[in-house]
């Protein structure tokens, strides 16, 4: 087994642990700007609809628009629905998406941003090399 | 009849404590009333906020079974944009980066509570 697949397993384990550790976090995905999933973890009850790549591609479009506000680069987007809240990070060139219950703690989800940014950079470097 | 100046008085109350601009936009994204440092700034915020909301709403329509996105917070390096709907219009708050999401949510909820009924009445009479 090569180094990259070892790292893949480690990252999958880390994402699974994150789901178990953060209360009411349903799913976490790391994708590129076209919505191609690189790593994903979710609880068993997560509706497949919220894991669709459309969420990442929509964020990519919104993030580009928001970067024209005159407030410099877009960092994140938080959206609230009736049942869910979605926190998305612009970890360029990747996008990290967290889907949680509507009443879960948004601050905790946002505080994961820096931790996940380092992982996104690592994944981006490895996928670029391959 | 809508009185933009009366609405502006309400929006002004939310434009404090790090909130730089507050705008009420119609469904096409044109500002009905706003409080901002300059008209140019308000026009930029209005155009982009409306685009952001429409893009996100369209993109997530198939994702949820409920009636779609309710509140949107766009965090940038030098500021935060908060968006929601009131009646058939859009409410937009632009704040400095140090303003927390919870404050923006509380302010926009308060504005929605205050404006929902009168705006709905006006919209019903117009249509």
UniProtKB/TrEMBL annotation, chain A:
InterPro entries: LAMTOR3 (IPR015019). Pfam families: MAPKK1_Int (PF08923). GO terms for cellular component: Ragulator complex. GO terms for biological process: cellular response to amino acid stimulus; positive regulation of TOR signaling. Belongs to the LAMTOR3 family. This is 7378_t:CDS:1. It comes from Paraglomus occultum.
From TrEMBL, chain B:
Residues 7-95 form the Roadblock/LAMTOR2 domain. Coiled coil: none annotated. Pfam families: Robl_LC7. SUPFAM superfamilies: Roadblock/LC7 domain. GO terms for biological process: positive regulation of TOR signaling. GO terms for molecular function: guanyl-nucleotide exchange factor activity; molecular adaptor activity. SMART domains: Robl_LC7. InterPro entries: LAMTOR2-like (IPR037587), Roadblock/LAMTOR2_dom (IPR004942). GO terms for cellular component: cytoplasm. PANTHER family: LATE ENDOSOMAL/LYSOSOMAL MP1 INTERACTING PROTEIN (PTHR13323). This is 6200_t:CDS:1. It comes from Paraglomus occultum.
